[in-house]
Amino acid sequence: MSPPHKPKQKRGLWSSRFGFIMASAGSAVGLGNIWKFPYVTGMHGGGAFVLFYLFCIFVVGIPLMLGEMVIGRHTHRNPVGAFNSLRGGPWTAVGWLGVISGFVILSYYSVVAGWAVNYLWLALQGTFSSQHASKVPELFAGLLSSDLGQLFWQSVFMASVIGIVLGGVSKGLERANKVMMPILFLILVFLAGYGVLSPGGPTALRFLFYPEWSKLDAQSMLEALGHALFSLSLGMGAMLTYGSYADEKTNLPTAAFTVSFMDTCVALLAGIAIFPIVFTYGMQPAGGPGLVFKTLPIVFSRMPAGSMFAVLFFLLLVFAALTSAISLLEVVVSYYCDEQKWSRNKATLVIGFLIFLLGVPSALSNNLLKDFHVIGDRNFLDSIDFLASNYLLPLGGLLITVFTGWVITTRVAKSEIEKGAVRFHFYPVWHFLIKYVSPVLVAIVFLHTIGLF
C-alpha cells in the first residue's frame, strides 16, 4: 500500500482535542436524534427497540466511526482524496459517494431545518400559547402550503450554515460547535428533568427503558440498525472529513467512543424530554414524523409556561440541525479545497448556493410541485430523502466497513489508532467487528432497503 499523498496547500486543524470531539459530536447530533429517534421509538414499541439500538451503536456504529476517523487522519484528505491516495481505482468512487451524499442530503435537510427555524420564530412570538389547541396543527399546514415561506426559511438556515463554514476549521466549525453543543446539552438536560418530574414521567421512563421483547420484530431491528448509521452521520464521509483535521496526538478510539456516547445520550435525553409530555397530555407516542411539528406544539399550547418550553425546544432543534448541516457542507467544500485548489470562500459560497438551488424543488414539493412524482408516488423531497436514506448512506457505510476491514492493512490501521494512545487493548475486538460483524449487518440493512432481503 502506497503512503498517503499529502495535499500541498495548508489544511486547517482542530485547535484542541475538545474542539474535535465537540465538532464531531455536533456532526452526529442532528434532527435524527431529536426529531426522528423519539417517533421511531414510539412506532416500534419503546424499550426493546431502544436496547437493540444501543447494541447496534456498539457493534456497528462505534467501529465504523473509528474506521472513518482512521482513514481521514491517515490521509489528511477529503473523502475522494483519501480513497484515491490509499488505494485509488474503483475505491475512489466511495469517496465520491460521500461527497454526493453530503450535497444531496443537505439540499432537503435544509428545508426541514427551515421548518424548525420557522417554529422557533413562532415560539419566540408566543404563537402556540395564544392559539387554541385545535388550531395549532393548521400552523404546519400553512407553512407547507406557502412556497415563499418555505424558501425564505430554507434560505435563512442555509445562510447560517454557509456563514459558519466560511470561518474555516478552527474559527468556524470548531468555534460554532463549542458554543452550540454545550447549550444544546443544557437545554436537553433541563427539558428531560422537567419531563421526569411531570405526571407522565414514570410512564415515559417505563416505555423507554422497560423492554417488551414481543414488540421487537425483524422490521424493528432493521429500523434500529439503520437509524444507528443515520444518527451517527456514518457512510457520508463526514467523520472521515472531520478526522482529517485531527492532529497526531488525538486519541481516535477515545474520540469515537465519546462522540458515539454523546450522540446516544442526546437521543435518549430527547426521548426522556418528549415522552413524559406526550403521556401527561394523553397524546400517542407513535405519533410518526409529525410528532415534533404537529403534536408537541399542541402540548405547548396547553402546558404552564408553554411559551418558554416551546422556545427552548425549537432552539434545541435548530442547533442540532445546524451542527449536522455544517458537517455536510464541509464534506463537499473540503473536496474542492483539496483537489480543485479552490479557496475556502469560493468553495463555500458556490457549493452552498448550488445546494440551496437543489433544495428549491424540495421546498416546493408540498404545494407548487405536489403533483411532480419522482420515485413512485413520492414527491421530490420524499424521493430525494428515500434515495439518500435507502441507497447512498447504507451503501456508503457498507463500502467503508469493507474498505477498513479488508483493504487497509493491519499495520496501517493499528499504528494510526495507537497514535496519541498508550495502547489500544481492544484493537482485536474492533478489528473483528469491522471485518466480520459490521459489513454483514450493514449489508443486511442495505439489501432490505432495496427490497432484496
Describe the structure concisely for a colleague:
It is built from 19 helices and no strands. With 453 residues, it is mainly alpha-helical. The protein has a single domain, classed as Amino acid/polyamine transporter I (Up-down Bundle).
Write the layout of secondary structure elements.
Layout: H1 17-28, H2 31-43, H3 47-75, H4 79-86, H5 92-124, H6 127-130, H7 136-144, H8 147-166, H9 169-197, H10 201-209, H11 218-231, H12 238-243, H13 252-280, H14 295-302, H15 306-338, H16 344-364, H17 380-407, H18 410-417, H19 427-449
Key traits:
453 residues, mainly alpha, Amino acid/polyamine transporter I, 19 helices, globular, disordered N terminus
3D architecture notes:
The chain has helices at 17-28, 31-43, 47-75, 79-86, 92-124, 127-130, 136-144, 147-166, 169-197, 201-209, 218-231, 238-243, 252-280, 295-302, 306-338, 344-364, 380-407, 410-417, 427-449. The protein is mostly helical. Helix 1 (17-28) packs across helix 13 and helix 5 (92-124) crosses helix 8 (147-166). The two termini are 35 Å apart.
The H-and-E topology, N to C, reads as HHHHHHHHHHHHHHHHHHH
Helicity, as a percent range: over 70%
The CATH superfamily bears the name Amino acid/polyamine transporter I
Strand content: under 5%
